[in-house]
Amino acid sequence: MTPLEYTIDNLPEGLTEGPQWLSDKRRQLRLSFNDKPLPRRGAHLWRYTDPGKFVPNSSATAPVTASPSLAQIESELFGLLEKKHLAAVVVDKCGQTATIRMSDELGKAGVVILPLEKAAQSHTPLVEPHLYQLINSEFGKFEALNGALWQSGVFVYIPDKTTISLPIHLVRDAGTAASQVFPRLLIVAGKNAEATIIDEYTGGPSDISSGAGMSHGAVELFAGADSRVRYLCLQRQAGGMNSYLTCRARIDSGAQMVTIPLALGANLSKQNFGVILNGKGADSRIFGLAFGSQYQQFDNHTLHHHAAGSTTSNIDFKVVLADKATSAYTGLIRIDHSAKGCQAYQENRNLLLNPGTRAETIPELEILNEDVSCTHGATVGPIDPMQVFYLQCRGIDYDTAERLIVAGFLEKTLQIVPGDLRERVSSLIRTRLEAM
Amino acid sequence: MSSHTPLLVLKDVHVEVEGKEVVAGVSLTINAGETHAIMGPNGSGKSSLSNALMGHPSYKITRGDVSLAGRSILAMSADERSRAGLFLAFQYPLAIPGVTVANFMRTALMAHRGKDADMSDFRKLFKAEMAALSIDEKFATRYVNDGFSGGEKKRIEILQLSMLQPKMAILDETDSGLDIDALKTVSQGINRFHNKSNGILLVTHYQRLLDYVKPDFVHVMMSGQFVKSGGAELALKLEDLGYDWVSEENGGKVTVK
Ligand SMILES: Nc1ncnc2c1ncn2[C@@H]1O[C@H](COP(=O)(O)OP(=O)(O)OP(=O)(O)O)[C@@H](O)[C@H]1O
Ligand SMILES: [Mg+2]
């Protein structure tokens, strides 16, 4: 069987457990996956990436060995939890949710953090109305794939009027071998709730020489009226990973959502972040960053769907490419006919550090009423040689000048990353720049 | 006060930009302890010369030689020239978004002192120099020249001068854009910097800067050449009479385009 003919013949054992409604859903999604044709190369959102790269290998299995750095990250995060820098820590090992630890305060406040299949059983009224609501088989073939096969699922619930000031940090490790993982996350924040969720994706084979590892992720997020939710997605998987992630959020009236997609890792990374502004006064901001070197390939999409009037959205998506890395960014702003008085802004800036890099930027606007203000901008280009010269005139050598300018380019985005993580992300980028 | 140690020596320097010769053979010797001023009409080549001396990639020195403290600098990159002791305060300083003035200054100073140098005095030094130039402390965390007013940019240029302590400072219209008080503060900053062992080359249009920073020599540049040199009194005469008489004196040989 060629990879393109891959079908799910049976749900693996273990996935048919849980409540009936869930296994019914999984079966349904299994069939839709099998029925749906593979997206055609060149179809919308597939112009820059070969869909075949995301078709699972029928012989691949779930990972058996955790990545070597996981233990260190884990102990670091547990340390931060103890020091009250984090509210909760969730660790996936080898495609299975292994550890969930949270502060006592969180439990007392009624916050729920559970493996998704457990929550489906124990908190059905919270899970069933939300799971698969935003990401299901209608979305696409690979979304159906995750829907049927997700294994390391996590459920996070923040009750109404509950403020969790410290971040909840999830690490989803894909192990070391060329295996495949299907992480899924469901976040439900109640009315007037406040929380920060850090969702970190790690692991995978270090290169594609013995086949790519595969990660198919899905994140659904519901933000109740007047809630304030920050969702940070850090993709720093190893260089042998083909990584696919779909994230959809629906935010109600007066809710403020900040999405921070940071894509640093993987061989091929295709990520789709969308926010549906579903009630008056909802506000969404996306601060994206993709940083690529060597032969890394990024294909990022964002969607701001203004489904209600008087909603505001803002996207600042930055891309830095070195060596032979490539990026395509497609940003769609959709404003419904009934959604009057909306404001939407979208900016995509691409910094190309070498002539071998390539960046595409595709703004898409579907604006169905006139009573809106919508602007977008994009730049693609090398570092300004005059900026380099200015720094050189003060004794700073070319390489250091370049690093300083790149750091400056990313500064605004990094400022939004919560404290402890900001230092780690900055140093990840610094190390990469210094190695160039 | 000059000790006659040549600091910056220009020998028949020609500069080309965009394939056009804009400096057509200038020679000049600046000794340690001296202050020289270049004056001249717009477009006469003053900034082109300054940029070329600093190693700007667009301004090529096509003929002649430039040496700093006895060493030719022509083969050096801009950062090497800076570390060798050359400094240029820009007529139009560039913004570096996202890079704070403090981080920039620290990186620059470290480049001058060497990678493993002790930087523990940085904070104190930086604060003191900012205070001396009446620069508000909040500028330390602002991004370099990003949204700065014209005068603020010029002050930051002089802050860099006083932090880096070069051997030879070229100041291209540092007085333009400054209000009356700022002109005084900045001039004081330049004078504080100046000593027996360093040199200054001022590019200016106005006597008012020269009232504060006294030049030992004034050179008039027209169409890419020095057409007249003299003492401080030459600047006063230019202020009164403009440039026409200089070009007439040259038998109309050098005309202002
Ligand atoms: N980057 C450039 N590209 C093309 N021409 C240039 C460039 N820079 C300078 N020139 C030209 O070179 C000549 C000298 O310009 P320069 O800026 O050196 O004059 P200046 O004496 O500094 O004038 P000002 O007093 O107005 O600052 C002018 O004709 C100018 O148009
Ligand atoms: Mg000039």
Textual characterization of the structure:
The complex is a heterodimer of chains A (436) and B (257). A ten-stranded mixed sheet of chain A has the order 2-1-5-8-10-12-14-16-18-20. In chain A, strands 3, 4, 6, 7, 9, 11, 13, 15, 17 and 19 form a ten-stranded mixed sheet that branches. In chain A, helix 7 packs across helix 8. Chain A is globular and about 70 Å long. In chain A, strand 1 and strand 2 form a beta hairpin. Chain A folds into two domains: 276 residues, no CATH class; 53 residues, no CATH class. Chain A is of the alpha/beta class. Helices cover 22% and strands 38% of the residues of chain A. Chain A contains nine helices and 20 strands. With 257 residues, chain B is an alpha/beta fold. Chain B has one domain: Rossmann fold (3-Layer(aba) Sandwich), CATH 3.40.50.300. Chain B is 35% helix and 26% strand. Chain B contains nine helices and ten strands. In chain B, the strands form two sheets. In chain B, strands 6-7-8-3-9-10 form a six-stranded mixed sheet, with helices on both faces. In chain B, helix 5 packs parallel to helix 6. Chain B is globular and about 60 Å long. The N and C termini of chain B lie far apart (38 Å). The mean pLDDT of chain B is 93. At the A-B interface, helix 7 and helix 8 of A face helix 2 and helix 3 of B. Magnesium ion binds next to helix 1 of chain B.
